[in-house]
Amino acid sequence: MNITKENVDALNAVVKVDITAADYQDKVTKVLQDYRKQANIPGFRPGQVPMGLVKKQYGKSVMIDEVNKLLQEALNKFITEEKLDILGNPLPKENENFSWDAEDFSFEFELGLSPEFDVNLDAGDKVTYYNISADEELINKEIENIRGRFGKMISQEEVIEGATIVGTFVSEDGEIENKATFVLEDIKGKMNNKKFMGKKVGAELKLKTKNLFEKVEVLAAAMGKDEEEAKALEVNLTFTIEEINTQELAEVNQELFDKLFGEGNVTSEDELKAKIKEDAEKQFVGQADQTFLNKLTEYLVENTSFELPAEFLKKWLAVAGEKQLTAEEAEEQYANSEKGLRYQLIEGKIMRDNNIQLSYEDLKEHTKGFIIQQLAQFGNTNPEDSEVDEIANKVLSNQEEAKRISEQLVAQKVLEFFKENAKYATKEVNFEDFIKEVYNK
């Protein structure tokens, strides 16, 4: 057997594999001998079938099978030993003169080679890491939300400021009949508000969908429609009041602190605020990290220049999936996946150059960490190590789940590397300003 590689250019190569009869004949003979022992052909006792008959019946298919096995093993070994960094898989080149009736064979494969490039992690002020703080306004809003969650509803005889109203909307033409709950503050305009104020349970109000609520999502929920349908609604309504409630907020006291954080862990409003700030800012770190990673990824893809073996990759995409793609479909898939492929190459180079590795133990410990968190949510705050270990092994035995977790852990390791080694701007913001700046809201 002889294997040679010819570089077409920096990104494409052709590997030629020459296989002679001497390379496969012994393997074919052994398989045919096994076939002979097991063959059940009328007129011959088991194991006594003439070898010539066995060869005639099975020889060619066995030879093709053994040559293909030999070819695949040799090609994989060559790629490994030559340390070829390839993209996709080798693609066999068509040979119009090829025939399985010959004794010696030549096969050629196209290879797409990974490009060589450098990665510059100096993003300067084009990428920002946001240190998000929980300001006094956010903390006070959260305390108000907590007081509401732990408060109680008080039934009212008539609609007053701050009331929560329950009732049924019906349109005159019968298109709408929906029970809804909303707060008086959701109502838009003084005229509509005036129709509700002072009304009692059982009262029927004549309304119009147009300009009834401040927000379209509230109108959609009240009418039992989706938002697009709600935007187009302009009908007359009858609303019958069925319940009127107001909410009495929970007192900010030791009873509330104990419900939230366990007995005696928080003993004052100042400690409550400090705990809310701490918990909120822990959550903000995750949002800041993801935003930073997304922006730095975009920056690296846009600013790390290298060519790809595009034509090879399109041909490979056309045949790589379960369904063969047309040239146009492969072109479209390549266009959609090119940025992702570029980042995979950048990420891979960063990991190799900086010895960022992912071991099975890393993967298992990461898996055990989120298992412990999940168990805690169901009240199991102190699980046995053996129990967690068993669940982790079961999770990682699922290849798709193991792949998903691996990708998460790689992203986490690369993120940590970026935060320590990349050059970027930092900015102190509160959460509201972060949302405005990042999401333009």
Task: Write a short abstract of this structure.
By secondary structure, the chain is of the alpha+beta class. It folds into 3 domains: 2-113, Alpha-Beta Plaits, CATH 3.30.70; 152-248, Chitinase A, domain 3 (Roll); 282-439, Trigger factor, domain 2, CATH 1.10.3120. It has helices at residues 21-38, 51-81, 136-149, 190-196, 216-223, 227-232, 254-261, 269-303, 310-320, 327-353, 360-377, 385-396, 399-421, 431-439; strands at residues 2-7, 12-19, 86-92, 105-113, 122-133, 152-155, 164-171, 177-183, 204-208, 236-248, 423-430.
Give the topology.
Layout: E1 2-7, E2 12-19, H1 21-38, H2 51-81, E3 86-92, E4 105-113, E5 122-133, H3 136-149, E6 152-155, E7 164-171, E8 177-183, H4 190-196, E9 204-208, H5 216-223, H6 227-232, E10 236-248, H7 254-261, H8 269-303, H9 310-320, H10 327-353, H11 360-377, H12 385-396, H13 399-421, E11 423-430, H14 431-439
Parallel strand pairs: 5-11
Antiparallel strand pairs: 1-2, 2-4, 3-4, 6-10, 7-8, 7-10, 9-10
Helix/sheet category:
alpha+beta
Rg from C-alpha positions?
35 Å
In the CATH scheme, the class of the largest domain would be Mainly Alpha
Question: What is the string of SSEs from the N terminus onward?
Answer: EEHHEEEHEEEHEHHEHHHHHHHEH
Total of helices: 14
Profile the largest sheet: 5 strands, antiparallel
The appropriate CATH architecture of the largest domain is: Orthogonal Bundle
Helix content: 40-55%
Distance between the termini: 66 Å
Q: List segments where confidence is low: pLDDT < 50 over at least 5 consecutive residues.
A: none
Shape: elongated
Average of per-residue pLDDT values: 92
Look up the CATH topology of the largest domain: Trigger factor, domain 2
Give the tally of structural domains. 3
**What is the strand tally?**
11
Query: What is the strand content?
Result: 15-25%
